[in-house]
Amino acid sequence: MTTPFEDPVKRRPGWIARFRSSFLTGLIVIFPVAFTIWLIWTFIGWVDSFVMPFVPMGYHPDMLVRRLLGPDFYNTWIGEDVHINIRGLGVVIFLLFTIFVGWIAKGFIGRSMIRYAESLVDRMPVIRSIYSGVKQIAETVFAQSERSFEKACLVQYPRKDIWAIGFVSTTAKGEINTKPETSSQLMSIFVPTTPNPTSGFLLFMPKEDVIELDMSVEDAAKLVISAGLVYPNPKNPLQPVEENDVRTAAQ
């Protein structure tokens, strides 16, 4: 039933509404791509600005091109004041330098030099604390091991009846597990913050208070980063991602 003030015929959206819809759809398509490219481009520029000052001036791209073409040809056709900057060259130099240092560090001489340098650092009170902390973080993040979060889970945090997504790190060991007055095994749970999952809280909770989820750690991380907007299975959020969907996404 309609009132006299209602139009019985459903009107099609006007050109302004269609323009707005197309514009928003374009933003959804362009923004992730543009932001990713900008982030990579900015990171490459940051690495170049850090690495290139350590490269001798004679090996900079413009000096190499100047020697290759000759000063007269360079000044005439390119310009004496023109400097050639190849973006990403610093990244390549950094990668090669890092690979070389890693190769040296694996050898006997490299290990001996590292032990000697660390023995010197251990004698410096303030620098010793900074170096040991940074080294532990680097070993945790970059170490070539199978250490990673085992499962995604739900825990009641920061109080009862408030649920938060966490990641099962390991089972608690030593006095962390024996001294608390609990009859069950404690589990190490990392509860990340939103939208930055690299910071968070480390909780030791009884196993029965931890509800393990079927979703993968990657899907749970996406849910945290998106502040609850991106669920693992957009077709049916009540179900985990199906194997066929995962294979299709991977292809």
Features:
251 residues, disordered C terminus, 5-stranded antiparallel β-sheet, 9 helices, 12% strand, single chain, alpha+beta, SH3 type barrels, flat
Shape annotation: flat
Helix and strand content put the structural class at: alpha+beta
Element order: H for helix, E for strand: HHHHHHEEHEEEHH
Write out the strand line-up for the largest beta sheet, numbering strands in chain order.
4-3-2-1-5
The helical percent reads: 40-55%
Gap between N and C termini: 51 Å
CATH-derived topology of the domain at 151-243 = SH3 type barrels
Estimated radius of gyration: 28 Å
Number of strands: 5
Describe what you observe in this structure.
The chain has a five-stranded antiparallel beta sheet with strand order 4-3-2-1-5, with helices on one face. The two termini are 51 Å apart. With 251 residues, it is α+β, with helices and mostly antiparallel strands. The chain has a domain at 151-243: SH3 type barrels, CATH 2.30.30. The protein has nine helices and five strands; from the N terminus they run ααααααββαβββαα.
Spell out the blueprint of helices and strands.
Elements: H1 15-51, H2 61-69, H3 71-79, H4 89-106, H5 108-121, H6 125-142, E1 151-156, E2 163-171, H7 175-178, E3 186-192, E4 200-206, E5 211-212, H8 217-225, H9 243-250
Antiparallel strand pairs: 1-2, 1-5, 2-3, 3-4
Helix pairs in contact: 1-4, 2-3, 4-5
Summarize it.
By secondary structure, this protein is an alpha+beta fold.
